[in-house]
Amino acid sequence: MAPPLLTLQNIHLSFGGTPLLIGADMMIRERDRLCLVGRNGSGKSTLVKIAAGFVEPDKGERVTRPDVTVRYLEQDPDFTGFATTREYAKAGIAPGDDPYRVTLMLHALGLTGEEQPSHLSGGEARRAALAQVLAPAPDILILDEPTNHLDLPIIEWLEAELAGLKSALVVISHDRRFLENTTRRTVWLDRGVTRVLNDGFAAFETWRDTVLEQEDLERHKLDRKIVREEHWITYGVTARRKRNVRRLKELEGLRINRREALKTPGKVKLEPTQSGQSGKLVIEAVNIAKSYNDNQLIKDFSIKINRGDRIGVTGPNGTGKTTLLKILMGEITPDSGSVRSGTHLDIVSLDQRRETLKPETRLMDALTGGRGDMVSVGGQMRHVMSYLKEFLFVPEQMRSPISALSGGEKGRLTLAIALARPSNLLVLDEPTNDLDLETLDLLQEMLAAYTGTVLLVSHDRDFLDRTVTSTIIPEGVGIWREYAGGYADMVMERATIAQTLTSSTTRRDNPKLKPAPKTTSAKLSYKEKYALETLPSEIDQLQKDIAAFQAKMADPNLFARDPESFNNTATLLKKAEANLLQKEEHWLELEMKREELGA
Where do the domains of the chain lie? Predict the structure, then answer.
């Protein structure tokens, strides 16, 4: 087997005396497809910068094979000194690279190469940065939040482009669907150390939850042991005569282990401040249209939004998503048509572009407006630090300028500002940018519990699938259509409609073709009968297998003793659970069909 392209071993790094990495490892092999996951602030970007050679660790080794080329897509690319996007993209080319790939990548990403960096939007800047790192086709390609500010067509193009690359790939992203589609191995950075799952991101969250449950069990056993040791020292016969020095040291060691075990990262507390109930009708738009010069953004679009709806809006950049949202909110008047708002609306918008966050403003002043240290949350006064702790800010940050915050911290601050105000209509424009996966989970739970109405603009397919009840997308010049369900439901429904239209067009163009007769089966086929007979035993066996896997993973020392066996068992458990669900659904469908035929 060929040696790894790059290896990080026992990496330690501290900032201002605070340990960030305390023994992290990472190995990158040829054609690897690796995702690096972890909480915001856990050190993911720092670890990949060490891998790219941009940051020197305090301790540890970085070992690379000779002549390995590495390209790193950073979150905030620096365009200083470049007159055009072409100049910037060409800066990534090394001797021996094909310069034509710069032009190829720029055009594929929707850029001419003549754009001036000072006039780029967030999406254009991200595409120019992608062109710079993709053009050389390096041995190792490291992408830090590559989908931020990109629209869905470019994200899907990027997935296809990465699938065809020979480069080893390391990805940091909050976009679950992107990670599922592009990775085959997972490195979890947690509390300064790394753990490896030899499977893609799709299997990560189940594995992570299992590991954390195992830690909870071991922590509980450690607590019990400490209680027993304290009881012996206090009441033991030997202890009454003299203290056993060795056993006292052991107890102190247990207490140290307990303190270390309790150093788990905090959790953001997301609770929207809900106002009174709005009227049943929230917004109704009838035949609205909007153009700018000769650009028709919206044409004859109608929608009725009722209380409790969760409406998702997605589509390519420049198609008019924000314009549509502003018309529905009454901020822009349509050229034709009408918009009617319901009664008793309390609207809160989530400013994920962070235009209201002034870089020089102190963190506490962003919430209090510079008036003291109290903030109104749902009509009640609270100390600003007490409130900000729920969003994982520490007292030392209260007087820091917003410019000192990371992207994830700015995202959490925006959430804190928005959720302090009472609302029954939340308007969220790209809320997922820079948030870690755990915070995204909490945001999804918050929206599920929210009794008001939600309007959501997002390019995150997984987030849309988990949160919205219907999806609006553009389908041509000015044409917008609403589909029931999330993004995946919309894709399926569009495919069905396209297939129906193709079939009807073929029959219309070929009169000799007769309509396909409707076939109904009056009885179960032999295959269906056999499945009805055998599925119960197969389901029973799968349930036994799952119980055995769960019993094996209940061993508190399994992960420490045999990580490979633990990972293999977790993978087998996941596959068995998926297989069980599939077989149960198949049996239920057949049983319902049998009952219908019997009736």
Answer: 6-206, 207-261, 281-492, 526-598
Residues β-bridged to residue 281: 306
**pLDDT confidence of 541, banded at 50, 70, 90?**
confident
Choice between 403 and 558, residue whose per-residue pLDDT is larger: 403
Contacts of 182 (CB under 8 A, 6+ apart): 33, 35, 159, 162, 163, 169, 171
CATH for 6-206 (3.40.50.12280, 1.20.1640.10, 3.40.50.300, 3.40.630.30): 3.40.50.300
**Residue 207, Cα to own-chain centre: how many angstroms?**
17
* Helix or strand holding residue 457 (H, E): strand 453-457
CB 419 within 8 A of CB 272: yes
Question: Are 281-492 and 526-598 the same fold in CATH?
Answer: no
CB within 8 A of 61, min separation 6: which ones? 7, 8, 9, 10
Q: Is 282 helix (H, G, I), strand (E, B) or coil?
A: strand
Nearest one of 25, 3, 10, 46 to 142, comparing CA atoms: 46
Confidence of residue 89 (pLDDT cuts 50, 70, 90): very high
For residue 377, what pLDDT is reported? 78
Residue range 56-78: mean pLDDT, rounded? 92
Residues 6+ apart with CB under 8 A from 444: 463, 466, 467
